[in-house]
Amino acid sequence: MLAVVIVTMATLGLPFRLPSQGTTTPASSGPTGASGTGSSVTASALGTLASAISASAAVPSGSNGALFFGGLDAANTPLDTVQSFNGRATTSVGQLPTALASSGAAVLGGTTYLFGGTDSTPTASILSLSSDGTSSTSAGQLPQPTAGAAVASVGGTAYVIGGYNGTSDLDSIVAYTVAGGAQSVSTLPRPLADAAAVAFGGDIYVIGGVDQGAVSDAIYRFDPATKTLAEVGALPVARQQVAAAVLGNQIIVLGGVGSSATSETRAIYAVAPTTGHVTLVGLLPQKLAGAAALTLGDEILLAGGTEPSGQTSSEVYAIKVA
Question: The whole model's pTM is what?
Fold first, then answer.
């Protein structure tokens, strides 16, 4: 997920793809608003990563830090590096068993699990990682190779949603528990890769994504109790590779890219979970897609990503209510 030539990442065997010309609403690289009164948010520079990355997996670490697993470097090469951010600076603290980009991560019972990803082709592996990210062990297998899936957890279960298996985008929703392993429990209305997933109020919200070049604007709500899914809203512009996290009573959607090359955006949207209403609430300092986002206390940490030029970012931002 790079130059002036438009190439899809599928051509390279990776799920994090430069957007191809899709069939959805034309995307704009500038912010596109939706009416509403959501709380405004600000983005401020917090620090830098040890190395610039996009398409990495991230989990909280300590009270104000985060661990970042793998990702893509500026040459679109998957990395095996584990980076630790302490709130201001980042250091490399370990290595994954293999280079991985476009994995998904979740914390279950205090342990971090890494789902799928790709080195040159998607993998079905599930890894269990130590709390400091310095060691890992095998924790099972997904039903099929999966990269670019959206991952979120509710009540001790991680849900691996959509993704790409090396041939086609996936519509699967896979539930993983430490005791029971991975099993398919439901399906999306359409295949989706490079979507975002956020847990809120016991449900999981799936935002954006792409299906074989057709970029989605849909916001779905998945109920883990009933295994049912409903479309509850839509982004003003179809986006893939968005970052998303919870901030207070809102789901914040950051950046992303549309169906054309260099259509990364600065837009920050707030989604009201109860209504699905979407509001433009701020702007990022730069246009980004494929960044990593996670909630830390009363702010969101946003790190890395790809700029319209194809440059990979090393910036770390704090996203807060204004």
Answer: 0.89
